[in-house]
Amino acid sequence: MELLSYLSWGPHGWGDELVRGLGVTLSLALTTLPLGLLLGLLIALASVSGRPVLQRLAQLYTATLRGIPELLTLFVVYNGAAMLLNQLARHVNPDAGFVELSPFVAGVVALGLVFSAFAAEVLRGAWLALDKGQREAARALGFTPWLGFWLVEFPPLLRLALPGLGNLWLNLLKDTALVSVIALNDLMRMASVAVGVTKQPFLFYLAVSLLYWLLCVLSEAAIGRLEQHLSRGLRRPAL
Amino acid sequence: MNSLMDPVLALHPWLARLLTGMAMTLQLTATAVLIAAALALPLAILRARGTPWLQTPLRLYVSFFRGTPLLVQLFLVYYGSGQFRPELQQLGLWWFFRDPFYCAVTAFTLNSVAYQMEILRGGLLAVSRGEVEAGLAFGMNRRLLYRRIILPNAYRIAWPALGNEIILLLKASAIASVVTLLDLMGQTRRLFASSFDISVYLWAAVAYLLITYTFITLWRRMEHRLSRHRQRS
After folding, report:
1. B231 is a domain residue
2. The domain spanning residue B168 has which CATH number?
3. What transmembrane ranges does the database entry give (chain A) (predicted)?
4. Based on the structure, what is the number of domains in chain B?
5. In contact, A194 and A17? CB cutoff 8 Å
């Protein structure tokens, strides 16, 4: 019971701090998701565009970002962007002080880059699995390419890509913990702060792991629902 | 200080450190992957054909280790064990949990067991029923059936996914640097802290890509060999 009081609300417990950290974790993931998706879609379009230069660039982008650790990407963004910003600042105003990139922004950029590289591959795969006949039917019915994409190709694209994108969302949620290493006050770091004060590492890391687990289980349920919703009207082959 | 213009020259004083780091990264990943592979196979068989009473804890195990960040798992083992220091000292196990390398290997192994178990389970369930029945018709006992038919097929089917998991673990092993291990990432962070030269990150990226691509090539070659009976001329 004494142990549980560490997790209570108020000035003596760490419950409210952990929940605030959870909020930061969630807002980091939810900010990254749309940006990463949009960038991923652009990269995927480049890689199916049929233009060799664009295709090569997209390949290089996805291969590099998928091949190096997320933590390394994070450090490159955090330290590298800070350096660039400082050089720029000194260029504009030689007396400028030291500019620091906020860990949140660095986290969004780094995780967004990683997410977009993986999402581009998922979307490319879904694109290749699309029924070509539907595209041709839309063309034959006089749809403009954009309208055809939006009304005919996009819905099944989303359905085909959803399982892969769902996995990427779970990875993103877990990868947010890395940003605690550059001192963002997310769930993970709040736990470390609490451990520093209370000297109860197992208790707090276990509590935090259960919170992450809960997020993942809830996400999985939501993705399952969404999958069902997107597959309505789809006739599955009899197995 | 700023050798951004000349990253190739800058590599020279770093090379030895980065190579030591690479060796540590490889050692860490390989140890965890191999121990996990040995544990994952029997567990996957249990998970695929055990009683529900056995399957539920395994499912929870997989769900937990795949649903929480590896960083949290590492901290649970490395820092979390500190909470039980007197007990661990009494059991004579403290030397193990005091060492960041052993803790990282433990956390990575536990994590990889979960992923490998799920992958192998998929492979086992995808083995063709007809081939197993043919083996039974030949009078093979369970042992022989597993050795000659089920396992070779399951591993062939699971091979690409297992390769993906190993690459993911290799990349994820970079977080070992957070618990002071001097793996490739750890050495890189140290070099950056002393030089403030961003190109050290570039070389670390090159090193990671080099490891990944070498591994992918080797893995493909092994996959080719595993499925040599299926090649058509």
Report:
1. no
2. 1.10.3720.10
3. 20-46, 67-89, 101-120, 140-162, 202-226
4. 1
5. yes
A105: tokens are: 């922004």
Q: What is the pLDDT along chain A (239 residues), one digit of tens a residue?
A: 567 777 777 777 788 889 899 999 999 999 999 999 999 999 999 998 889 999 999 999 999 999 999 999 999 999 888 888 888 888 887 777 677 788 999 999 999 999 999 999 999 999 988 888 888 899 999 999 889 888 998 888 889 999 999 999 999 999 999 999 998 889 999 999 898 888 899 999 999 999 999 999 999 999 999 988 988 877 766 55
Please count the residues of chain B: 233
In a domain, B2, yes or no: no
Q: Is residue B233 part of a domain?
A: no
Domain range for residue B119?
7-225
Residue of chain A minimizing CA distance to B61 = A213
Q: How many angstroms separate the CA atoms of A166 and A227, rounded?
A: 10
Q: Is A205 on the interface with B (CB under 8 A)?
A: yes
Using a CB–CB cutoff of 8 Å, tell me whether A6 touches chain B. no
Residue in A6, A59, A68, A169 to test binding to B, most B beta-carbons within 10 Å: A68
One DSSP character per residue, B169-222 reads HHHHGGGGGGGT--SHHHHHHHHHHHH--THHHHHHHHHHHHHHHHHHHHHHHH
Helical segments of chain A, H only: 2-5, 15-47, 52-67, 70-75, 81-92, 103-129, 132-140, 145-148, 154-175, 187-198, 201-230
Give the best residue of A209, A215, A216 to mutate against chain B (max B CB count within 10 A).
Answer: A209
* pLDDT band for position B1 (cuts 50, 70, 90): very low
CB within 8 Å of B159: residues ≥ 6 apart: B219, B222, B223, B226
Size of interface A-B (CB pairs under 8 A): 112
CATH architecture of A2-230: Orthogonal Bundle (1.10)
B72/A205 Cβ within 8 A: yes
Q: How confident is the model at residue B31 (pLDDT cuts 50, 70, 90)?
A: very high
Q: Which residue of A has its CA nearest to B171?
A: A69
* Closest-approach residue (CA) in chain B for A64: B209
Which ipTM value was assigned to this complex?
Answer: 0.89
CB contact under 8 A, B208 and A69: yes
The residues, ordered by sequence, that sit 6+ positions from B158 with a Cβ below 8 Å of its Cβ are B119, B120, B122, B123
Encoding tokens for residue A29? Answer: 């993931």
Domain assignment present for B1: no
Boundaries of every domain in chain A: 2-230
